[in-house]
Structure formats: structure tokens, C-alpha cells
Design the sequence.
């Protein structure tokens, strides 16, 4: 009973308050989202990643950095679900704690790069003229260099380490967001509703932040989610060549790098973290695809 | 008092000059129509007054105050505009409430809730519509919201760019009645672009006919009703507007 | 050819809604020969949806069903997306209601018209430019060379509509569905543009469906008129009979129009229950 009440309150075509309108919109989007199986799979994977990171100490069976030289390179068993590595550390526990690092990388990059790109792109697109030329010139310089090489160069200059790897990935990923935001801004900067708020005396800053950014965010969320897979892989790549997370941090890419030497005889050492990377990347891809279906203004929205 | 005084207005976009020596005077409380050929620069004149077409020469005065070329918040209090396309003039991600809140915030007006409720009532929208998004509204309802947004800062002059051409006749009738009532109640001054002469005769007391960026004739609405227009082009429009009556 | 070009029988368009599926077109039937059919009716009565469903352009949650939907012997309901694409534009084209919304904001109008042309025919570059120019002239655009290079936000409302019409006429379709094609045009350009369309109907044997809320226009330019209300046809008559229409709804629409010699202080409006039920 209370449930149906809630539902009709949310789906009310004539909401009675600001919050009801907002929750109604969220609820409608989530209804659409729920009917997309693949997207739900993605969401479950991402939620599992988050849960894993949050409850790592309870989920892990061992201490991720405790070495046990007697138990080196054991195959998966009841005691060590994913086996152990060359220092006798439990791989399952390392994968679980690795989720924290992966999640931190993903969140930090998204929190640094996406807003910066969004703001730069929207400002350039809206103001046009020399502001546009300067900002987009800088963007293009960054875009013209291969991402991984640029990240490598940056980490090499700043020194290896997880923080610098995050910074490097953020620095290499904002330009593509700026490009998208600019392109989107161009399509509606001449719309009448923008002209109307200019007529009310709104400043350019207010228009960019209050009117243009909200229209770019949904495609940006989609884009960032889809890019997550790439970010995770880049971070893993940096870890793999020793420029990312440093030992003994259980970063998935670094774990693969170490397992590489035993790949033929002790396959699980490299495969388990690799499996984690693939699962999480796919999860973000599915989630992004699903979000695009429900959030993208061009396909959804109109009713 | 003269509400809108335009003298010898030349507006250009880059290289191309759009209007040539346009002169219009609208009395306070008057309702003036700008009709004429599509692409002749009618909307451009409105945009120049509003500050959306900043490249112009000549004189534009609103209540005796010369108009600057840009947009200033002060001017917004005197003069607002309603656009032609109700589908493009509302922000697709903002509720009616948020749309109406914006001008109040910019102008620093208080009593948000009361003002919004009052203006919605004025344009004939029930409070149920207040928290809807534009896609949940019909064309006519959207146009009412656009009119409400323009009126909420209590301007004296309203620039209307074909406010009903995207709407069907029955909704058009509602909007026209609304505009007529608001003008009477609030003493508003209208400068309206339209291509529909019957609308002019319903809502306006004077009109100017434009063609190729120039005004070819200015006349009173009585002349229109009686079919006494002088210019050849105006007469052509008139003849075409009075088809074998349906 | 003798049979009708287009046969529509019992057309339904349904949208899901939180409170169950809603029919926005409720069993529409008509036939179109090489003639001019007008559809009038108030906002939201399903005029645009009818046009869109013929072209298979009803967007995703919406569903189209009909006992018959045939164009020139082709069953449109059975056509896949690929088959529809071959028909769309080349054989049936539609002028959409809001031109600014339908035009690509970051492409010049000349490029867009050219694209409509080359999508269906291979032509040398020179020829394309000449055809685009000729088409813009045909829809009475004064300096076609300048306008072809403008972006949609740089043209006037009426020009936008004429550009849309040019885009749709350039492949010379068999049927043109024109959804409020001239609502932003002044009467004189409107007459000229409709005359071009009229000419195509008479000389090339094109079929025309003219969707409009302007009763005078429809009465003048069409042979037959359907009046729609809430997804149904409430009146189907010869255009010349429109002024004698009997249905109260049609009468209401007629009365709501302002007249050139207007003396009424207030225009009568239709008491629309849909308005309050929305
Ligand atoms: N931003 C712009 N850049 C360049 N040219 C423009 C721009 N805006 C309008 N024009 C040109 O100005 C001319 C007049 O346009 P305007 O919109 O004033 O016409 P209008 O009289 O309102 O016509 P309609 O009745 O069709 O709306 C057109 O030729 C148009 O191409
Ligand atoms: N995506 C959708 N979901 C649900 N209902 C829709 C959707 N699109 C359109 N409708 C509904 O379908 C009905 C018919 O719409 P349609 O666009 O055909 O109206 P119309 O007769 O063309 O009106 P107008 O004169 O305003 O253009 C409307 O009531 C509208 O609310
Ligand atoms: Mg205009
Ligand atoms: Mg329609």
C-alpha cells in the first residue's frame, strides 16, 4: 500500500513541490534504466566493486601484504581462493584491496578531469572568439599526443607513484571532455532559451554554469562511465611498467606485471587480477551504455 | 509619452546590412505590429531593441532613455521579449518553477513563491503546472510560461516575436485573449511581429509593413480593417489575407 | 496508375505511460491518391503522429499498428529500417513541424539541402550546387548564394521553413507530408510556396498531405479535409464544404480565428477537457 502510494507520488504528472519534481524525474529515469538488462549487469558489477572497496578488511581472507615464504605460488585452493603469489601473499585478498586503489583512481580522475573539461569546453563554446581559439588550441595540443605516451612522460617527469599516475591520467583525459562539451554547447548556445536568460540580464558565467552545464552533464556522465574502462587500463598499464603504484601496494596492473614471469607454470598469479580488470572495465562499459540510453537528451527525454 | 522611439535604424550582421532606416514610434500603452515579408528583418528589429543584435546604427530609445548596444540588467526590468518558438524558448531541464525563479534571482526580487504563484495565475496556468518540465506541457502552455517569464520582472514593454504562429487556432485564441487582457490590466506596451493581419486587427492599434529591410508603410489599425492601405505590397498582403471567407 | 497511392486503415499509435498504454491515434483510416489531403485539428490531436507513423518515424516507446498501411503496393509495416530508408525522402518525404529543431545547428543550410539530394542520387558537384541554388530560388529565397552559406540560427523563422521545404522537395518524392509547413511565413510567400507544391501535385502527380491548423489555408489548397480531435477523425469532407462543417469542434475552430475586420473584444475559445485533464 505504502509502496503504491510512493510510486504514484513519484509518477505524479503535476508535482506539488520542487523535491517531488526532482525525485519524480530520478524515479522515471531509474525505471527506464531497470528495464535494460545489460545496464543492470554493469550496475551490479560497479556496486560490487564499491562494496568490495568499502568492506575490504571483512571480505579479504588474509592480510594483503603479509608475506609467507612457505606458501609461495600455491594454486587456488580452499585456503587461498585465488592462490598465492611469489611472496606467498594471498591473491584474493590483494585483489579485494586492489579494488580500493582502482576505485580511488577512477573517482579522482573523474572528479578532476571531467569538471575541468566540462567547464573549459562550455566556456570556449559559449564565449567563442579568441577565448575559444586559445582554449581549444591548448586542448588540441594535448589531444594531438597519444594518451599513454603523454601519461608516461608526465609520470617519468614527476616520479613514479600512484598519486602521480592519477594526476597524469587526469591531465591526459580532460581534453576529450572539453571537446565534447564544446560541441554540445555549440548546438544550443543560439537557442532561444539562452537568449531569454541573456535578456533577463544573466551574466555569461551564470549562463554557462546554470544553463549550459546542466545540458552537458548527462552526456558527460555517459562519456566518463564509458572512459572508466580506459582509465583503469591506463592505470594498470602504468602499474605494469612500474611507473604507477609501487610495491607492496596491491594494484591490479602491477600484480599482473609481477605475475608475468610465471604465466606458463603459475597462470593464476597474472590471470586473477587480469580477470578483475576485465570484469570491472566491462561493468563500466555496460553501465555507460545503459546510462546513455536513459540520459541522452537526443534519444530519451521527450516524454 | 513615447514608449519606444526608433529612428533611422540600420542593423547589420557582419558584412550584410539587414535593415535600412527603420523608424517606429510606439506610445505608452500602445500596441504596434510589425508585419511584412519573411526575412525582411522584423525579428532583427526586435533583437536590436533587446540587445541581441548588437551591431546597429541609429537611435533606439525606451521611455526617452537611449539604448546601449549590449544587455544590461536594468534594461531587463523595462523590456522583455517573447520568442516565436515555444519549443525552443524554455530550458528543457528546468521546471516551470525554476524557469520563473531565474529572473527573480537575477533581479534580486524577493517573495519568490508569491510572485511565481501570482504570475502563473495571471497567465492562466494552474498551480499543478508549476513543477512540470517543458516536455510535459503543450505548445500553448509553454508559450504561457514564456509570457510569464517575461512578465515576472514587471516590465513595461513587451517585444513579441510571432507569439502564436506555432500554435493552433484555438490555443492562439487563448494566447491572444491573454495578451489583450494583460495589456489592459497592466498598461503594457507591445511591439509585436506577426505575419497574420487578422491578429493585427484583433490586438494592435497601429502597424508598419516591412519589406526588404525597409518600412514601406505605417498605418492605423482602422485602415487595415477597412482595407485602406496605400502601398502596393501592403495591398497585396491584404488581398491574400482575405481569402474567400471560410 | 489508378489505385490510391497510400492506403491507411485503422492506424493506431500507442505510447506506454505509467498508468498503462495510451492511444494517441485511435483507428484512423483514409486513402490518398494523387491529390491534396488536408489534416486539421487542435494541438495534440495526433496530426504529426499520423504523418510520422506513415514514414516509420514514431520514436521508440511509441508503437504503430494498422490493419493496412500500404504505399504504392508496398506494405509499410513490413518494411525493415533499410527498406524504409529507401522510401523515406526519395518517395515519401515529410516537412517536419519545427524547422529549427529539425535542422542540424552546426551545418550550413546549403550543405544540408545538398545532402538531401545526394542521399538518393549521384550527381556531379557542379550540378549539385546548381540544383541547391535553383531549389532555394524556387522557395522564394531572395539571395540564395548568401543564404546557402548561413547556419540555421542565422536565418529567419520563415527562411527555416522554406529551407526544410526545399530539402524535402529536392528529391521529387511521390508523396509529400507537410506538417505545418508555412506557419512562420507571411501570406505572400506562403502563397508562392504552396503554389510550387500545388504545381508539383498537378504536373508531376505528387500526393500531398497538408497538416495545418489554418483552416483557410487548408480550405484553399486541399481537395479533401480530415478534421481530427483526440486521435480520431471527427469530420471528413470536401475542402469547399469546410465552412459548412457540422461538428461542434470544427465550428469552434472556425470561430476561434480572428478576422481581418475584427470587432470582437475576446475570441471564443474551445472548452477543451484535454486541457484540464493533461
Ligand atoms: N545571426 C545572423 N547572422 C547573419 N544573418 C542573419 C542573422 N540573423 C538573421 N540574419 C539575416 O537577417 C535577415 C532578416 O532576418 P529576420 O529574422 O529579421 O527576418 P524576419 O523578418 O523576422 O522573417 P520571418 O518572418 O521569416 O521570421 C535574414 O536574411 C537573415 O538571413
Ligand atoms: N513520446 C511520447 N510519449 C507519450 N506521448 C506522446 C509522445 N509523443 C507524442 N505524444 C502524445 O501524442 C499526442 C499527439 O501528438 P502530435 O504531435 O501528433 O500532435 P499534433 O496533432 O501534431 O499537435 P500540434 O498541433 O501541437 O503539433 C499528444 O497528445 C502527445 O502528448
Ligand atoms: Mg522572424
Ligand atoms: Mg504536430
Sequence:
Amino acid at each position: 500500500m505504502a509502496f503504491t502510494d510512493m510510486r504514484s507520488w513519484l509518477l505524479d504528472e503535476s508535482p506539488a513541490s520542487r523535491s517531488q519534481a526532482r525525485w519524480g524525474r530520478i524515479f522515471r529515469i531509474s525505471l527506464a534504466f531497470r528495464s535494460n538488462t545489460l545496464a543492470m549487469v554493469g550496475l551490479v558489477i560497479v556496486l560490487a566493486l564499491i562494496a568490495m572497496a568499502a568492506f575490504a578488511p571483512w571480505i579479504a581472507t588474509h592480510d594483503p601484504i603479509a608475506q609467507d615464504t612457505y606458501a609461495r605460488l600455491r594454486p587456488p585452493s580452499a585456503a587461498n581462493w585465488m592462490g598465492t603469489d611469489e611472496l606467498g601473499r594471498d591473491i584474493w585478498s590483494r585483489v579485494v584491496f586492489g579494488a580500493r586503489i582502482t576505485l580511488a583512481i577512477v573517482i579522482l580522475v573523474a572528479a578532476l578531469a571531467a569538471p575541468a573539461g566540462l567547464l573549459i569546453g562550455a566556456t570556449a563554446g559559449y564565449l567563442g572568439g579568441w577565448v575559444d581559439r586559445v582554449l581549444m588550441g591548448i586542448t588540441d595540443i594535448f589531444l594531438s599526443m597519444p594518451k599513454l605516451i603523454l601519461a608516461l612522460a608526465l609520470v617519468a617527469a614527476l616520479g613514479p607513484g600512484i598519486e602521480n599516475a592519477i594526476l597524469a591520467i587526469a591531465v591526459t583525459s580532460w581534453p576529450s571532455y572539453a571537446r565534447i562539451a564544446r560541441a554540445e554547447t555549440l548546438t544550443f548556445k543560439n537557442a532561444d532559451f539562452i537568449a531569454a536568460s541573456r535578456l533577463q540580464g544573466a551574466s555569461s558565467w551564470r549562463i554557462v554554469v546554470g544553463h549550459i552545464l546542466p545540458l552537458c552533464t548527462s552526456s558527460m556522465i555517459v562519456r566518463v562511465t564509458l572512459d572508466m574502462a580506459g582509465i583503469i587500463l591506463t592505470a594498470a598499464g602504468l602499474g605494469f611498467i612500474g611507473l604507477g603504484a609501487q610495491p607492496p601496494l596491491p594494484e591490479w596492473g602491477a600484480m599482473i606485471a609481477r605475475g608475468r614471469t610465471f604465466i606458463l607454470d603459475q597462470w593464476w598469479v597474472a590471470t586473477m587480477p587480469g580477470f578483475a580488470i576485465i570484469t570491472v572495465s566491462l561493468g563500466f562499459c555496460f553501465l555507460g551504455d545503459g546510462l546513455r540510453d536513459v540520459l541522452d537528451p537526443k534519444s530519451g527525454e521527450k516524454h | 509619452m513615447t514608449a519606444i522611439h526608433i529612428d533611422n535604424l540600420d542593423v547589420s550582421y557582419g558584412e550584410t546590412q539587414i535593415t535600412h532606416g527603420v523608424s517606429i514610434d510606439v506610445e505608452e500603452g500602445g500596441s504596434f505590429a510589425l508585419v511584412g515579408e519573411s526575412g525582411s528583418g522584423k525579428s532583427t528589429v526586435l533583437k536590436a531593441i533587446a540587445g541581441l543584435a548588437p551591431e546597429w546604427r541609429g537611435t533606439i530609445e525606451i521611455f526617452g532613455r537611449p539604448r546601449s548596444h549590449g544587455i544590461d540588467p536594468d534594461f531587463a526590468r523595462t523590456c522583455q521579449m517573447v520568442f516565436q518558438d515555444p519549443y525552443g524558448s524554455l530550458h528543457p531541464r528546468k521546471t516551470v518553477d525554476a524557469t520563473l525563479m531565474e529572473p527573480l534571482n537575477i533581479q534580486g526580487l524577493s517573495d519568490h513563491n508569491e510572485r511565481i504563484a501570482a504570475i502563473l495565475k495571471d497567465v492562466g496556468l494552474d498551480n499543478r503546472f508549476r513543477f512540470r518540465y517543458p516536455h510535459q506541457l503543450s505548445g500553448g502552455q509553454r508559450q504561457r510560461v514564456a509570457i510569464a517569464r517575461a512578465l515576472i520582472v514587471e516590465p513595461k514593454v513587451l517585444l513579441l516575436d510571432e507569439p502564436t504562429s506555432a500554435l493552433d487556432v484555438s490555443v492562439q485564441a487563448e494566447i491572444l485573449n491573454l495578451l489583450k487582457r494583460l495589456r489592459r490590466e497592466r498598461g503594457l506596451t507591445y511591439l509585436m511581429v506577426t505575419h497574420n493581419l487578422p491578429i493585427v486587427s484583433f490586438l494592435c492599434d497601429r502597424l508598419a509593413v516591412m519589406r526588404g529591410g525597409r518600412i514601406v508603410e505605417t498605418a492605423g489599425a482602422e485602415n487595415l480593417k477597412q482595407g485602406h492601405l496605400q502601398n502596393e505590397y501592403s495591398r497585396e498582403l491584404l488581398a491574400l489575407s482575405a481569402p474567400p471567407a471560410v | 496508375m489508378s489505385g490510391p497511392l497510400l492506403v491507411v486503415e485503422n492506424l493506431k499509435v500507442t505510447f506506454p505511460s505509467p498508468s498503462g498504454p495510451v492511444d494517441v491515434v485511435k483507428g484512423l483510416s483514409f486513402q490518398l491518391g494523387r491529390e491534396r489531403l488536408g489534416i486539421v485539428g487542435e494541438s495534440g490531436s495526433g496530426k504529426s503522429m499520423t504523418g510520422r507513423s506513415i514514414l516509420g518515424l514514431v520514436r521508440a516507446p511509441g508503437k504503430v499498428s494498422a490493419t493496412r498501411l500500404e504505399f504504392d503496393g508496398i506494405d509499410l509495416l513490413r518494411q525493415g529500417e533499410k527498406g524504409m530508408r529507401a522510401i523515406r525522402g526519395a518517395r515519401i518525404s515529410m516537412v517536419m513541424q519545427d524547422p529549427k529543431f529539425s535542422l542540424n545547428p552546426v551545418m550550413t543550410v546549403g550543405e544540408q539541402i545538398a545532402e538531401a539530394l545526394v542521399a538518393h542520387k549521384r550527381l556531379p558537384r557542379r550540378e549539385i550546387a546548381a540544383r541547391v541554388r535553383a531549389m532555394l530560388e524556387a522557395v522564394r529565397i531572395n539571395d540564395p548564394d548568401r543564404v546557402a552559406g548561413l547556419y540555421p540560427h542565422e536565418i529567419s523563422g520563415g527562411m527555416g521553413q522554406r529551407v526544410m521545404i526545399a530539402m524535402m522537395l529536392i528529391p521529387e518524392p511521390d508523396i509529400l507530408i507537410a506538417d505545418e509547413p508555412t506557419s512562420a511565413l507571411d501570406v505572400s510567400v506562403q502563397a508562392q510556396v504552396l503554389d510550387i507544391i500545388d504545381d508539383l501535385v498537378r504536373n508531376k502527380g505528387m500526393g500531398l498531405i497538408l497538416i495545418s491548423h489554418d483552416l483557410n489555408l487548408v480550405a484553399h489548397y486541399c481537395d479533401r479535409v480530415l478534421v481530427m480531435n483526440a486521435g480520431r477523425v471527427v469530420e471528413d469532407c470536401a475542402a469547399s464544404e469546410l465552412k459548412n462543417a457540422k461538428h461542434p469542434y470544427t465550428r469552434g475552430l472556425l470561430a476561434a480565428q480572428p478576422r481581418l475586420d475584427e470587432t470582437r473584444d475576446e475570441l471564443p475559445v474551445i472548452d477543451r477537457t484535454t486541457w484540464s485533464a493533461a
